[in-house]
Write the structure tokens for this entry.
Amino acid sequence: MGEVKVHRMWRSPFSWRVELALKLKGVDFEIIEEDLKNKSDLLIEYNPVHKKIPVLVHDGKPVVESLVILEYIDETWKENSLLPTDPYERAQARFWASFIDDKIFPATRKLVWSRGDDIKKAKEELEELLKIFEKEIEGKGLLGGSKIGYLDLVALLIYFWIPILQESVGLQVLTREKFPGIYSWSDALLGHPFMKENLPNRDDFVTSFRARFAPSS
Ligand SMILES: N[C@@H](CCC(=O)N[C@@H](CS)C(=O)NCC(=O)O)C(=O)O
């Protein structure tokens, strides 16, 4: 199996993707907590291009970018495969992963940092994107089929982070009324024994996000 380390920051959805993937695979790993205001020399050495967490270090070799890391994990430890085996479904999973990272993540970040008149527009932008995702997952169970898969981990941002961020900053965009498909999928995921056991404590996030992003209304 070799030595596995994860440079992370506890609040990062990108880090949690990697940690949960390793746990699903039964891979033991050491956590290196990074202070992003004072990054370690090793982090800069391992990820000189982006200087970001997460970094997976396997037997001394770094792998960066969470989506790349997930694929590396899936190819290295074969048990409990994350990506679908069918090439078309794999392509679809990768497409929606990019959609989450390239569209939903920036729109979410924009919203939590918006103030005053900008909030309305930022809310509308995020809502439009969530509507697209709602259409994609309507009527589907876990996105990995009957078990937790690649997209279920990538989409942590949607079903775990966005509700917590909303609560922390006092905004409502992702609601059960407007997004029943996203909520029924997220209920299935959050109620899954693996997620119950391994997802971080929600309250720690609310406290931390309140301090970081408030006030906003
Ligand atoms: N595309 C990257 C995003 C990772 C990312 O944005 N990490 C943030 C923490 S959530 C970070 O390290 N920020 C430090 C910085 O920007 O200086 C991935 O998927 O791994």
Observations:
- Strands lie at 4-8, 30-33, 55-58, 61-64.
- The mean pLDDT is 93.
